[in-house]
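Journal club side-thread
Mid-discussion, someone asked how the predicted structure for our own chain would compare to the paper's figures. Pasting it here so we can look after the session.
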Amino acid sequence: MNFWQNKEVIVTGGAGFLGSYVCEELRKKGCKSITIPRSSEYDLTTEKDVIKLYKENPNTDIVIHLAAIVGGIGANREHPGSFYYKNLMMGAMLMEHARRSKIGKFVAVGTICAYPKFTPVPFKEEDLWGGYPEETNAPYGLAKKMMLVQAQAYRQEYNFNAIYLLPVNLYGPRDNFDPKSSHVIPALIKKVYDAQKNGEDKIVCWGTGKASREFLYAEDAAEGIVLAAEKYDGSEPVNLGAGKEITIKELVQTIAKLMNFKGKIEWDSTKPDGQPRRCLDVTRAKKYFGFEAKTDFITGLKETINWYKKNAK
């Protein structure tokens, strides 16, 4: 019998960027009952609304927790307190009340920002506790990392089935392109697009360009999350990534080339680079639930650029 056919699933953040792909993947797999709590109805940082959510959905089988208060380096630097508190509260209360409501499985989706600043590359899950995260996003990264502590503690004490996934930087159509809170790929696409629209002959990018990042296409990430929800019931954290890194300098040059931008690229080294390098060891995901990223990076970038050009205001 199809695993998802009769499952009732709550997807927090299901109306967001990654969430929209996760819900599509669930429907593709035959899931007919998906509840997406909207922020206008539920403030998931408050206990009363978390209790209300579970009370109104008493037959929930699986919770996939994607909701996050999140942004790029700038947003993380401006709002460290609220990013820490809101993400910590959401994760802690959603998992606690899922346990109390006897929900069968909780899928906690963490963040690559949980890794120590100087993690050996490629990042292995066992290095997760080897140091403090990169300062600009440490409060956010640590708040999300507490879900791993909670998941493992609840498994040990209550035999509660909670798993913890660590997706790398995501990108793709429908991403957040707001310059105040966007991540690096949408921020760069918008920067190039605006320069072309305004007839400018240069763009200025943050940092030195020497930092590296790994990127996972959102559709691939959704497939990995749904596979883990179906097949993985272990206590160990699992990376979700593509297993390849690119420097920010190369990334800017690639986007400029794909968008046919001939102007100058300048670097503002007074702005932070963030974590020096990011690239994941992805062997656990393949071994535990058969996940491998499919989308070629250039193909994914083209799709993202085309989507933005069609939808830019």
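Post-session note: The longest helix spans residues 80-100.
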